[in-house]
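Deliverable D4.2, example record:
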Amino acid sequence: MRMDNKPHSPNRWLLALSFSVVAAVSVSNAVAGTSAPAKNPPVADVFDWKENTISPVTNPIYFEDPVIRSEIRPIFIYHNFDDKFATGRGSARVGAVQFRYAITDRLAFIATEDGYMNINGTGLKGNGWLDLAAGLKYALINDVQNQFILTPGFTFQLPTGDPKVFNGRGSGQLNTFVSFAKGYGDLHFTGNVGLLIPMLRQEQNTMAHYSLMVDYHVCNWFIPFATANFWTTLNSASNVPGLRSNGYDVINFGAGNASGVTQGMLGLGFRSNIQKNLSLGFAYEMAVVKPYGLTNNRFTMDMCIRF
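Output generated by the structure prediction step:
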């Protein structure tokens, strides 16, 4: 498969420009609002900073929230394929439910992958269950004075899914990651870096993934954010010979010609806290790095139900 060398479309450059503008406006607002901070703010006031942070909406399987929370999270994804991908024009729909449980104020059990996928493409159609993945995360650093949290963790993906939707392959995948969040008043930076390691490297690709979200807490009803999610394939496998792209977060194709290829999406969205323990999230993303492969654009919606 040959990389498309055509220029990026105006829509992709517009999305990238919007991403930059949102981040710049958020930073300027935060700086303007913190020109005279209190020298020694009360610990109780500082501790509340995490209550205004939000869980990432995009890349839900791998962009893990560093904050320890107990929640049930239904997710719906509508994903459009790039026309030049091997399957041709088409789309996929994914419905899933994630579960997280705070065992202590620093340790949480996380079940990050399950659900059902429908693929409706010109050259490919299918329905089936996704693999299951679960693990643990631990808040190693929880610096309430400086509004910073660092949380490493891992998940293990069991190949329980349906091959008709490119799941159920190999002998499982280990995902190790580190997530962080840094607050500046109502402005928050949340990030994640991880490595996806298949147990059978000839069947699936080893991939690095990295994500960043910038959000600004305007009010409980409206918390806009800009987000970036990228994946780099680190080896070539033998499952799909010649394929020079990968399946982003939901599918690991085991591509045969994708070593060193980076793919990514930029997105905009918002989260709305309907009640103290209930929030809704919406995001739109577009692929911005060629080869686009499986992805042209994506809509993601979720609901965080905390307890």
